[in-house]
Amino acid sequence: MSESATQAPTHEVILTDVAAAKVKSLLEQEGRDDLRLRIAVQPGGCSGLIYQLYFDDRMLDGDAIRSFDGVEVVVDRMSVPYL
After folding, report:
1. What is the mean pLDDT of each run of 10 residues along the chain (83 residues)?
2. Which position among 5, 21, 22, 38 has the lowest Cβ density within 10 Å, counted as fewest Cβ atoms?
């Protein structure tokens, strides 16, 4: 099996250095090092979509992940096309 076949999918969301530092600070305040920043899109709301941003300790099947200075940003596979 090739190396690329074993890597998790990725997404196109970008976290700036300032945002990554803020997320790190919030995680340090929580005293948790097992959380990731999850971004999700669900049906609903005035425009037809609801955007969610929260800390999550889960990894779901098909999650796309990228790391920004140690902060992992996770997007579920159904949300990737919308972001």
Report:
1. 60 94 92 93 86 94 93 95 90
2. 5
